[in-house]
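Full entry
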Amino acid sequence: MFRILLSLILLLSLSQAQENLVSWNDGKSKSNIISYVNAVTDVNSSDFIPVVDRIAVFDNDGTLWSERPVYFQFYFAMDRVKALLPQHPEWKSTQPFKAVIEGNMKEVIKGGKKGLLELIMATHTGMSDEEFDAIVIDWIKTAKHPTKNVPYTDLVFQPMLELLEYLRANDFKTFIVSGGGIDFMRPWASEVYGIPTNQIIGSTLSVKYENGKIIRVPNSNTINDKEGKPVGIHYHIGKRPVAAFGNSDGDFAMMEYTEGNKKYKTLQLYVHHTDDKREWAYDRKSHIGKLDKGLDYGKEHNWTIVDMKNEWKVIYPFELKK
């Protein structure tokens, strides 16, 4: 009788997973996710993980939403340059601002992370947190992607939204651990991903307290990328995750750190951008979201590598309405 009951429970769990992960084609990645969740949530399994330790960490750019042609926060910073230009006429002759004003994306991209950091310092500071939140919310509601011509929040990945829900339904606590700015993500990410602001970890600028307000100042505090991600997890969460999700070598350290959890069974999943029709196809030689070392290591260590083109029925939520 007990075995029959256990079989029914497992069948019900599988059915619920299939229903939750509706945008995932049946295949290795979907099977790996379901098998892992079933194993670690079964109290009779040797792989059982107590609820308190079910920590799942997600990169944002390229993992939960698109990141091409450049990171979306880059576009926000560029729009802020144009909005602030009347107050800074000197930007017309100073790089990287000059390239932004002239719409010279090749020159902007050439500036790399150093140029992006300079743009962020100039456009994200000198105001209170509340003022910055209002600017971000207004931008995220009105700005459109330059080639997709839809709001940026329409470019979140439907299969990953389903995965977040599936994990939370199985008592996982989900965190964003991104190289993007924490203050850029917090105003909108909670509504889009269902992740509370105190579970969002990102790069930070320095702030100061002044006249009852937190004021943002032009000085970098932390860069939450590459080796900085495990450090951010250590300080914000205080324990190793059991599941990690990324898309690039920038996420490798976070995923390796998760794999190093010797107490519990772990899951590492890479979103591999292979769909040049519905999204973009890139990996080893990309200037954004480069996946090289992680791709080789992931294959050697049996990490789950999602083939976006073949394993996702849809990429974006708006495709469901077609």
Remarks:
- Residues 275 and 309 are 5 Å apart (CA to CA).
